[in-house]
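The aim of this short unit is practical: by the end, you should be able to scan a pair of folded records and say something sensible about each. We start with the first protein, listed as its amino acid sequence and then its structure tokens.
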Amino acid sequence: MKIGYLRVSTEEQRPDRQIDGLEPLCDKLYIETVSAISKKRPVFESVLAKLESGDSLVVWDLDRAFRSTVDAITHANQLRERNIDFVIVTLGVDTSTADGMLVYTVIAAFAEHERRRLSERTKEGLQAAKKRGQRLGRPPKMTDNQIISAMQKIETKQVNISEVAALYDVHPWTLTRAIKRFELVLPK
């Protein structure tokens, strides 16, 4: 049986490309939504446990299944010991052959290198943005004027925090945090 494993990192990401590529090749598909760096991948672990001798584990891209070169090689060896083929569709690699395993090992090393370089570039970009004074992260839900107005309403006891939060269409906890952050930057 050919078992396809697909992974996306976030709910916003779509597995369509992987589904389109694997559906015609596989008997069953298993989709997981979890970051590659996550320690737990329950769907992946379940798929590995279900595989039997003579089955094939099929993935679209190498990085959809493994986090590091060591992880990739270790799992490929474990699968081979269980007489389970491992196929990476986009690379045309089948680890059941000596040449396929060699190519797989080299590609796994390059994939890990690229992942680490991407992480380094991202951190460098964030540091450069901070140096230029750019605000990182999501934009604030409330403007300074809205926070001041909310603080005045709360101080004069016109309304409670939940009512003010509803007025600005934010969660009460969001309003409370915004006020605390705002109070930290107010001159005393």
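Turning to the second protein, read its sequence before its tokens, just as you did above.
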Amino acid sequence: MAKGLNSVHLAGTLTQAPELRYTPGGLAILELNLGGNDTVLGDDGQVRELAWYHRVSVFGSAAESLANQVTEGTPMFIEGALNYRSWEADGQRRSALDVKAIRVEVLSFGPRKGEQTVLDSRGQHRLKNALNEVKLIGNLTRDAELRYTPSGSAVTRFSLAVNERFRDRSGSDQERTHYIDVNVWRELAEGSAELRKGDPVFVTGRLVNDSWTDSDGNRRYTTRVEGSRVEFLTRGPGQGGTSTRPETSQSAQISQPSKALDIDEEFPPEEDLPF
């Protein structure tokens, strides 16, 4: 298993005033709903601005100190990590991918505030030229799957297992695995199609939300990464030998256990809601 890298950077505008709440165990939680625009290349080769909305959770004393400093329309910078959760509901296994904040900064619009945001159909402010960047190192949980859209564009899907090491309240070293779905497009998709279960990779991309209607007519939501770069990594010593992939880069990432909140112990999971 590759040493995990799990990094998220977002800069956007609060689409609504955050609300501070507490878990039964007394942990403070502040949920920030951010909105922004990404500039992306479309299937037709045209550059477009695409809207995004993501929810970020801030915990502990940082949540309490920030609660009265920000409101709807405030521009924010977030450094964080993706947090995978799963639970049982109505006899079915459910999962969600959240953003857990590590660092939060309030940004300044400067003198040209009116030119830096756009109002959406709900009247919510969304930051132009926003930041939406994800970096991951993990191992594939299954073989990559290459498909083509009706218009002929290639898309490859795979899922990464990303390790996180931390210390629990007792000081014991623990390890958690985050499962993150990734899509890549066009030439990158065709070049990634040979990836197989267990292969370690480095991925950079943007965080996106998808929605669909299930067989019972319920609207469902999921969060994934749309990759813009994929690097095949060699397997390190004691991890099953060396990769036979022709294009490889050696990872020098060193991961040490660090003290972190075990969020799952503090509050039960709940499915994400639309913004």
